[in-house]
Task: inverse folding
């Protein structure tokens, strides 16, 4: 799918999956999903030699800073 964001053409896709406990018919909570998805996006970009968009560059920089502060 191609879209424009601030006049910059970009390609992206969306992934959706069901997290339902069929026996209880309840949604299964996925803790820290935004953090996990951002980390995975950074990892995949590095693996395939893709440039990170500005938002993920900032995310990665922030994570590095927080990790170093804990050491």
Result:
């Amino acid at each position: 799918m191609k879209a424009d964001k601030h006049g910059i053409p970009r390609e992206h896709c969306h992934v959706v999956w069901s997290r339902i406990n069929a026996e209880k018919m309840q949604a299964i909570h996925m803790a820290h999903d935004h953090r996990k998805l951002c980390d995975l996006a950074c990892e995949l970009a590095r693996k395939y030699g893709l440039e990170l968009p500005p938002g993920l560059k900032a995310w990665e920089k922030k994570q590095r800073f927080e990790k170093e502060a804990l050491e």
